[in-house]
Amino acid sequence: MHMQRDNEGIRLPKLLGLAVAGATLLAGMVVMPATQASAAEDYGFAAEDDFVPGDLDTTKVPQLTVTKYLSLNDGYAPTGSAKDAAQLNANHDLAPAKGIMFKVREVEPTEGKSLADIDANDASTYVDKNDTVYAGVTDGQGVINKWYSTKPDGTIDVDENGKPTTELSFPTGLNHYYVLSEDAANSPAFDTVNNPNHLDLRKYKTAVNSFFGLPYATNGSDDNQTRGFIYHLHLYPKNVSTESFAKTVQSVKGRDGTAKNQTTATAGDTITYKLSQKIYNEGGSAAKNDGKLDVSELQGKGADVRLADRMSSSLKGDPATVKAVIRDSDGNTAAALTSTDFASDTSTNENPARLNDPSQKMFAEAPSADVTYWVFNFFTADGVAKAKAVNTSVMELEVTYDALVTGNGDSTGTGGVVNDAASDFSDNKDSEGNSQDPVPSHTNVTNAVVAFGSVQGKNQNPKYTALPGTEYRLVKNADTADKYLASDGNYYGSKDNVPAGVQVYKATANSKGLVVFAALPIFETPSKAADKTVQETSWMLVETKTPKDWRSPGIPFGKITYGDVGLTEEAIVQKYGRNAILQPNYDDLNFGHFDAPVSEVPEDTKMMFNNVAVTKYLAHYKTTDGDSPLALPLTGGRGILLLLVVGALIMGGALYARNRRNNAARA
Questions:
Q1: Residue 361: which residues within 8 A CB-CB, separation 6 or more?
Q2: How confident is the model at residue 488 (pLDDT cuts 50, 70, 90)?
Q3: What segments bear the compositional bias annotation Polar residues (predicted)?
Q4: CA–CA separation, 540 vs 553, rounded Å?
Q5: How confident is the model at residue 640 (pLDDT cuts 50, 70, 90)?
Q6: 211 and 306, same structural domain?
Q7: What is the pLDDT confidence band of residue 635, given thresholds at 50, 70 and 90?
């Protein structure tokens, strides 16, 4: 399986485009109170904590698991119990981050200081106790549970296959204290050279360090057996976005309405999205032209905030599900907004204008007309009154809605089930009062795709340029080329009754010639197995619509196969991330005589998908081309004309010869 991460691209997601680590343990605290060691009021611990009451067991080897969360807001400080993971995971504004490196060093106080003086963010208060550096990189679930040795350059020591060579364990016994820090410079997620979808370090707060003991001592009591040691410490550091706007995935539901445990999407699923805009309440200290919208700056004329969402053909929003609220600093709903508080347009196909500069558009122009723009304009006078009544230093303006994942592919060609959102607001200006670009957000879910280019043939000048408008479908094999793949894993003809909620897949080349199938059912089986795994696929590709004057290949191409067969959805997300773009083995997709070699495709025609160059191009022949592999003379054009002319000449000659014979016989 060929995989690409889709964290940002040109529009970097505010939840998945976060840079350096977020808030961690309170600096200097070596022993946390039991109420912080667990969220449970009874001071209970999860089994994963490996908590043992009483005195230290010097035979037990301690462990450390770090789970990296991405967040819009401060708060949710990490704790010392795995039991708190359920609470954190319930907040869909928190998302795990893949490819972030953390390092752990054992430390001791600098000379003249004690443990109580150690401040994890003040390097003058501690020194390294030894040369050992523990390093790990978060997986697709944001987790590090294995630690490895590093090389002098700070990267993890790996073998020729890229596998870490030396796994490290933490020492047993008392008096082992550590500082945890995030290493952005060596994090694959921030690698601008090797990661085409790298995260943008400029947009997020820098992490603070953590200081803790391991094994981790609790300060409970012997009476209720809460005094003891945690031998498997779980920490939940997070990043915090400095951006004022973000779009997040709140849930993915299957066509049966059941919420999925993983953010994987198949056509027929429903995704709940949320747009979040920060509004500040700084009272008399609010400054104009600072790029921050304050409640004192709200005018109530419908031009305070403009939120816009661009959905490609892979998504179809449901206007009936639109809801808007204002939340306070604690995340509580402070005000529900109605149609009298804001205006919305959920039906336009026109790229909306910027709020502060109507001569410019909210988005770069899409390479297809098959996109929908949803636009929300805040506030009316009634809406301003509700916002000003929220007595909090910062509030969140939120808009949520559902979108159906369709079988129509990704018309924008940016990542499958993907869409772009943007925010413009009245104070989105620089210090000189000049309008700034809308704040972008880009979001995706893990989905299986096929991407290739549809181009003109080698006989054109220039050759192999884009051929938009070609339509394609997927079939089981060459014997059933008129039955098309659907989201339930079955195949349907044009006259078949497709079950309710089932989507039949198709993909149409956009104006750049790019063709993308999205949200394919690689996890699905016709029996809908509960524990879904990657299935064996051998789909074939057929062209079902061809522009006028161009010849359809008329044959199925094969095959479309994926790797990682047998892995569960959870394992796929852990391996590749929550926003992975799973692509097939393109070496198996053979276009034969219709293949356009990548090296011969003009540079200005070469296509990108998810910020990576497309490797397959399907070439077409004109109906007048005589060298087409399927250029039979009876298919039309000059071929049949030539036959008719030749046939007429032959018949005329035969009649002439017969008349000559008849005349000779009479003579």
A1: 351, 352, 353, 354
A2: very high
A3: 339-351, 433-443
A4: 13
A5: very low
A6: no
A7: very low
- Domain check: are 190 and 235 in the same one? yes
Q: Parallel, antiparallel, or unpaired for β 177-182 and 210-213? A: antiparallel
- pLDDT score recorded for residue 524: 72
Identify whether residues 124 and 261 lie together within a single domain. no
Residue 229 CA to residue 469 CA, distance in Å, equals: 65
**Does 555 score more than 90 pLDDT?**
yes
Enumerate residues 6+ apart whose C-beta is below 8 A from 117.
Answer: 28, 109, 125
Cβ(134)–Cβ(168) below 8 Å? yes
Beta-sheet strand order (sheet of 232-235)? 143-144, 63-67, 232-235
CA distances from 517 to 14, 541, 559 (A): 26, 11, 14
Instruction: Quick: pLDDT tens for 297-307.
Output: 999 999 999 99
642 located within any domain: yes
CA-wise closest residue to 436 among 262, 243, 151: 243
Show the tokens assigned to 111.
């000379």
Q: Domain containing 340 — which CATH number?
A: 2.60.40.740
- The tokens 């006028």 sit on which residue? 548
Q: For residues 2 and 583, give the distance between their C-alpha atoms in angstroms, rounded to a whole number.
A: 5
pLDDT reported for residue 34: 31
For residue 353 the two structure tokens come to 């204008």
Q: Do 97 and 60 contact (CB within 8 A), yes or no?
A: no
For residue 626, what are the CA distances in angstroms to 556, 595, 600, 636?
21, 17, 21, 11
- Measured between alpha carbons, how far is 339 from 12 in angstroms, rounded to an integer? 30
Q: What is the pLDDT of residue 621?
A: 95
Burial class of 547 by CB neighbour count within 10 A (0 to 12, 13 to 18, 19+): middle
Cβ burial of 432 (10 Å; 0-12, 13-18, 19+) is exposed
Residue 157 and residue 250 in one domain: no
Closest CA to 428 of 574, 520, 291: 291
Q: What is the DSSP letter of 504?
A: B
Residue 178 tokens read as 């550590």
| Residues 609 and 497 reside in one and the same domain | yes
Q: Please provide the average confidence, as pLDDT, over all residues in the chain.
A: 86
Domain that holds residue 114: 18-240
Contacts with 522 (C-beta within 8 Å, 6 or more apart), sequence order: 448, 534, 535, 537, 562, 582
Please report the sign of the dihedral spanned by the C-alpha atoms of residue 525, residue 529, residue 532, residue 536. negative
Q: Which of 319, 301, 300, 303 is nearest to 311 (CA)?
A: 319
The three-class DSSP label of residue 42 is coil
Give the residues across from 212 on adjacent strands.
Answer: 178
Which of 199-208, 366-375, 513-522, 544-553 is the least confident region? 199-208
Q: How many other C-beta atoms are found inside a 10 Å radius of the C-beta of residue 510?
A: 27
523 with 487: CB under 8 angstroms?
no
| Per-residue confidence band for 285, with pLDDT thresholds at 50, 70 and 90 | confident
The total domain count for the chain is: 4
Tokens of 655: 């009649």
Residue pair 405/267 in contact (Cβ under 8 Å)? The answer is yes
Quick one: pLDDT at residue 525? Answer: 63
- 49 and 178 co-located in one domain: yes
Can you tell me the mean pLDDT for 630-636? 51
Phi/psi at 423 (5° precision): -130, 135
